[in-house]
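Quick note —
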Amino acid sequence: MARSRTIDAFNKPTGTIIGKGFVIQAARFSCGDAESMRVDGTVIGDVEIDGVLNISDSGYVDGNINADSVRVAGRVSGNIACHYALHLASTADVVGNVTAATIIVDDGALLDGICRTTLPPQDGVDRLALTYSRS
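Predicted structure written out below.
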């Protein structure tokens, strides 16, 4: 199930878009009801979404990210925690630790941090939370 969810996650239509040139600054930016969000501009602060976060090549997030799946083509300064899949495109530049059930890194992607894989959530148990509680 995790494999098909990983492949399908990045092909969903985008619900919320942070446009190029826009800057959002908040201690925590939460988009819990949206299935997906795309960042073409800048988000300063932690991002939390119960769905897919897509950071385009012009996008920048300065904060920690917690989402079901994340695709990074732009820049992230902060830790990324995914329940399912993390995809670092060839233009990605990430400074921070990453955790996901599946991690895909394209040629050219930059990652300065620790990479950890976990099991996807099953039976109502959040394996990601269990992983962090052991650290």
